[in-house]
Amino acid sequence: MSMRHRRPHTALIVTALCLVATLTGCSGSGDGSPSSSSPPASPSAPASASLSSPSSSESGKGEVKVTIKGFAFHPATFEVSPGTKITVTNEDSATHTLTADDKSFDTGDLAQGKSATFTAPSKPGSYSYICTIHPNMKGTLTVR
User: What Gene3D superfamilies does the record tag this protein with (predicted)?
Assistant: First the structure.
């Protein structure tokens, strides 16, 4: 009889552990903690970053692709020539934006699977950007 009483407890414990693991895996993006900004994940992300050329030196005729995945921009920091076309694709289930702090560029809201293209500013400089919905998501666009 004692074995019968153990099995329901074991199943309950296993179920509880699975639930905790699931919730822990999903909670990193919404709590605003520094670990959710994902800079350490960047080294494994270059394949999904799809950066057409590290510095599009084709006088603005190049194109750069930025992917939003795992509540982070890939690449988060990149360099382009003035007038370069930048396409941002959201691969997360949550809606995101890529918006310059000075509002010089903004994709608007991008739902899952959606893309938007904007043109890099013509003035050289460093442009910080965020997701206005999830401000812990940050990056820098450098125009040279």
Answer: Cupredoxins - blue copper proteins
